[in-house]
Amino acid sequence: MTITPRIHRMTKQRQIILDVLKKTESHPTADWIYEKVRQEVPRISLGTVYRNLRVLKEMGDIQELNYGSTYSRFDGNTKPHYHFVCLDCGDIMDIHVPVYTELDKDAAEETGGKVEFHRLEFYGICSGCIQ
Ligand code: ZN
Ligand code: MN
Asked: Which of 1, 15, 98, 106 has the CA that lies 20 to 30 A from 119?
């Protein structure tokens, strides 16, 4: 069995990007991931990181958290869960409360549509910024 070097290299880079995301709970930006991955793959480009993040998202290995005007943040945890966003420092933390799947049913009933998922964000000041 032969694997072309190009495909092999891409797959390895993608795995490194995925590992970086699985190892952090900080919900980093693409730039942060790029800086981290560069420590292992010095010649990787930011464009390659973006491209691999898109592929990982399409494969369902990561989540993209889009916050409108600010940069997307990425999450290696693909299980449904909620987030707390600090309005001061911008930190994003996981909230370990049960996911309210009943809301999907209510929303589907009201709209007559089919709900795939819902997102819930808590905004406030984190404990570190309060001090
Ligand atoms: Zn904060
Ligand atoms: Mn998360």
From this structure: 15
